[in-house]
């Protein structure tokens, strides 16, 4: 299964509550933090919800 590196690049200040919860569900708590996840439909849906706050790249 492919791995994804998700990095928070923008602040969650002034975001709706569902987007803040989406970031926390992904494990992102502060700016610049990077987490690794498997690529599955659940994770991809969460990333899609906050795509303007994060950057995503495939892990090697």
Characterise the protein shown here.
The structure is a single chain. This protein is an alpha+beta fold and 60 residues long. The chain has one domain: Ribosomal Protein L30, Chain: A. Helices cover 32% and strands 27% of the residues. It has 2 helices and 3 strands. The protein has helices spanning 17-26, 41-49, and strands at 3-8, 34-38, 54-58. The chain has a 3-stranded antiparallel β-sheet, with no helix packed on it. The mean pLDDT is 96. InterPro entries: Ribo_uL30_ferredoxin-like_sf, Ribosomal_uL30_bac-type, Ribosomal_uL30_ferredoxin-like. Part of the 50S ribosomal subunit. Residues 4-54 form the Large ribosomal subunit protein uL30-like ferredoxin-like fold domain.
Descriptors:
Large ribosomal subunit protein uL30, Ribosomal Protein L30, Chain: A, 2 helices, Ribosomal_uL30_ferredoxin-like, alpha+beta, 3-stranded antiparallel β-sheet, 60 residues
Provide the helix percentage. Answer: 25-40%
What is the number of beta strands?
Answer: 3
CATH class: Alpha Beta
Return Rg in Å: 11 Å
* CATH H-level superfamily: Ribosomal protein L30/L7
What is the overall silhouette? globular
Order of helices and strands: EHEHE
**CATH third-level topology:** Ribosomal Protein L30, Chain: A
Counting structural domains, the number is 1
Rounded to the nearest angstrom, the distance between the terminal CA atoms is 12 Å
How would you sum up the major sheet?
A: 3 strands, antiparallel
Q: Which ranges are low-confidence, i.e. pLDDT below 50, for 5 or more consecutive residues? A: none
User: How much of the residues is beta strand, in percent?
Assistant: 25-35%
The helix/strand class is: alpha+beta
| CATH-scheme architecture | 2-Layer Sandwich
> Kindly state the mean pLDDT as a whole number?
96
Spatial strand order of the main sheet? 2-1-3
Contiguous helical run count: 2
